[in-house]
Amino acid sequence: MSTTTPVQATSVTPPTSQVKRREGRTAIAATAFFAILQRDIAVTGRDFIAFLLQVLLQPLFFLFIFGTVLPAIGIARQGFGALLLPGIVALTVVTTAIQGVALPLVLDLGFAREIDDRLLAPLPVSLVALEKVIFAAMRGLVAGAVIFPLAYLILGSEFQVRADGIGVIVVVMVLAAFAGASLGMTIGTLVRPEQIGLMFALILTPLLFTGCVQYPWGTLGVLKWFQIVTLFNPLTYASEGLRYAMVPHFHGHVLPTLWLGWVFLGLSATIVIFFAIGLQTFRRRVVN
Amino acid sequence: MATQSNTNNAIEVEHLVKRYATAKVNAVDDISFVVKRGEIFGLLGPNGAGKTTTIGVLTTSVVPSSGTVRIMDIDVAADPMGVKQRMAVVPQQSNLDRSLRAREILTFHAMYHGVPKAEREARADELLKELGLGERGKDVVRRYSGGMAQRLMLARSLMHSPDVLVLDEPTNSLDPQSRLFLWDRIRSLNAQGVTILLTTHDMDEADQLCERIAIMDHGRVLVLDTPTELKKTVPGGTRLELRVRMPERVAVERGSDGQPKSYILNALREMTDATSVEEVPVKDEGAEHGVTLYRLFAADANELVLGATQAIGRMGAELRDLRVVKPSLEDVFIHLTGRNLR
């Protein structure tokens, strides 16, 4: 069919008939899905130290100032570190997961379009979104897990964690990670690149301070309106869930926390609602 | 997938319409065309003509409002995944994955498409070498020039051996070397059976590469034919250009100023079958002193040569040179889409 003479003796590519087309759509999509996941793992793994510094520095400073410095100079009560640690772990898991999706997505959909190659891979675009959420959740979990040994070093004798709640800790952390990643998917597909600064101010800052990170929910009875406000922050459920599973009983006295059922419900609802919204907005951004 | 017709067509577009949610008019307004397997097909048109939307539909990033598009007999709306396996696209602007090194961009792309490890490693090396990036495989692509990025995107698109390759303004803003290099690659890929659809604003490129061309404007396909046939559609067709010198003697005999020249104009009109004749003054200095340019239009200007030379000889004028000018693709393009800026 070609009217032009073959200019090059060398071949640019083998004939198309040689390509191996694997059988089965599910297998093809699964292959693409795991390849994309592997790409993300490779990229984060390469800059793992930078990743840890980026996500851990803020929570560790929080822990040091509020959990070590303030009790030491007598402004905060001894034992505050034990109350603070679950909140810090929750904060780290949730914000790392949010940012793991939202930041790259805002830039990618805005102008970089680096995601195009993955959108053109043989899998439904919703699976590309799902991969982003799963990977961001993984990042959140890794960051949250690393907090524990570092907290042990920072808090010293103030590091007190129940040993029997490990199962609940894991479940709450996993739910919190997916809740954060789902939130990140919604945020990342709605925010424009020029609004990134605004996003930090309007979303992350309120999230940080209304999420029962620095105070147990049960003690807010004196500020009823604020106690109600905190219930709209998914981070509250993560903090309280971890507080339930981590804070040891002092002299048989159990710290009152949000009921565990509400914790699971709050986190699950966040995942379902924001993943559904995020998936819709993602599809709208990538397929016209 | 059930209605596979197994035609010899690589791309079939039938009554495609796309209207964006917020738009008042259709971005693509009922277009139909077919690209045969093994063809190089050009999609031309001014900015906003609907080319990018059409390509978006072909590459599954735009959902048609109505109409159907099939790539290698697979409906893009019904089975985008199947289309993605058989198609590749090189976009206008770089969308290279900047978190990866050049060679990794190729190997990960192949991995997404399920190309086995040994094969993708070998192909990445081979393509890097053949596209002149052999030494730069370990580089981060931030350091790549525009031409290198373009070549890397072409390499990436070939990693999964697509049947159909879509090139969206592939040589836009490339230096002449890169452009010629890319043309060679496009031709040699096509020689191996890859069907190519390209958009371009470079009429020379379209003319040289494309077997058939569709010119679009305002969301519609205005014409679709081979470059040769398209050029025949320009009114006036070909033209004969003559540069004629009036010897002083003739000028004196016939009177002064522009007067004698119009005798030639009349003679050319009378003695040839030209549909129209124009007289164009030439800068009157040096060797060009006393020279006038005549343009004679006809469906086939070759047939005017004999009559025109006789006319000039009879008038005692001197023929400096003559040439037959064929309309370029750009003439066709401007004729169809006008001169207005978009």
Summary of the model, kept short:
Chain A has 288 residues and is mostly helical.
Please tell me about this protein's structure.
The complex is a heterodimer of chains A (288) and B (342). With 288 residues, chain A is mainly α. Chain A has one domain (26-286). Chain A is built from ten helices and no strands. The longest helix of chain A has 33 residues, at 80-112. Residues 1-20 of chain A have low confidence and may be disordered. Chain B has 342 residues and is an alpha/beta fold. Chain B has two domains: 9-232, P-loop containing nucleotide triphosphate hydrolases (Rossmann fold, 3-Layer(aba) Sandwich), CATH 3.40.50.300; 238-326, Alpha-Beta Plaits. Helices cover 35% and strands 26% of the residues of chain B. Chain B contains twelve helices and 14 strands. In chain B, strands 6-7-8-3-9-10 form a six-stranded mixed sheet, sandwiched between helices. A four-stranded antiparallel sheet of chain B has the order 2-1-4-5, with helices on one face. In chain B, helix 3 (102-112) packs across helix 4, helix 3 (102-112) runs parallel beside helix 5 and helix 10 (259-271) runs antiparallel to helix 11. The interface between A and B is large, with 45 and 60 residues.
Please tell me the total number of domains of chain A.
1
Largest sheet data of chain B: 6 strands, mixed
Strand content of chain A: under 5%
Indicate the radius of gyration of chain A in whole angstroms: 23 Å
Average pLDDT across residues of chain A?
A: 87
CATH topology of the largest domain in chain B: Rossmann fold
Structural category of chain B is alpha/beta
What is the succession of H and E elements of chain A?
A: HHHHHHHHHH
**How many beta-strand runs of chain A?**
0
By CATH, the superfamily of the largest domain in chain B comes out as: P-loop containing nucleotide triphosphate hydrolases
Listing every helix as H and every strand as E from the N terminus to the C terminus, the arrangement of chain B reads EEEHEEHEHHHEHEHEEHEHHEEHEH
